[in-house]
């Protein structure tokens, strides 16, 4: 497995993320219509990629195109030819504000999607065994320590959320959570479409809500890993849509691990005016 590459303090993946391309990213031109979904890994990126694909380029998900959601909403940090992408251009990213195209401070829209870090840790742990790009993890406790220290792909969850949250005013950005979306999918989709200034008739809206439900997406190859290159994922080891639950951490964390995590969380997130509360 290729291992991690530390790029300007952020852990990315060697072979996938090329330094010379990353160096050029801040200068890439941004258009008014560009839409970015930005997340820490395992926070529901695929979910938002799929919703955006349904909202803007749904024909590409099916029929002759038959594209995976992650090809319709590709990662900007992976080198590709952006010129052929239809408008609006849709991008996903795990990067921090300083590494992204700086034009985003004036143009384009950002959807930042965060999730309870304990559920992120559990989802991430399982994902290491499915991804051929990340090292297999045997012991959860060891992984949890690496996660807390930021010694994983995309480094520290705490730094990611803090960095983006505190820079919210510098971008045209909607900040919300996986938990909120789980609680009321339709309400969240309306909120996203209002933010993007895109209106849908009731029938289309209901179609988007229905297609982006966990049960539906789990059955959809273009939201899972089956149609993505087998060089990247071993789909026999697990699915992208694994459980899709809030609070799954309770099946993995011991009481001691949970208490220790809560303490670290409180310390690291101290002083951040977060308007939401995790069910830690
Ligand atoms: P679990 O591993 O807890 O099931 P990402 O896309 O950022 O890698 O995040 C993956 C996580 O989002 C997985 O969590 C996956 O199940 C969850 N997810 C993806 N689509 C979802 C949906 N429609 N509803 C609920 N959870 C979803």
Automatic annotation (TrEMBL):
Keyword Transferase attached: yes
Primary site of residence: cytoplasm
InterPro entries per record: P-loop_NTPase (IPR027417), Sulfotransferase_dom (IPR000863)
Listed EC numbers: 2.8.2.-
Domain of life: Eukaryota
One GO-annotated biological process of the protein: catecholamine metabolic process
Localisation per UniProt entry: Cytoplasm
Signal sequence residues: none
SUPFAM superfamilies in UniProt: P-loop containing nucleoside triphosphate hydrolases
Any one GO molecular function term: sulfotransferase activity
GO cellular component term, pick one: cytoplasm
Keywords on record: Catecholamine metabolism, Cytoplasm, Transferase
Residue ranges of domain Sulfotransferase in the record: 32-272
Family from the record: Belongs to the sulfotransferase 1 family.
PANTHER family according to UniProt: SULFOTRANSFERASE SULT
Protein name, entry field: Sulfotransferase
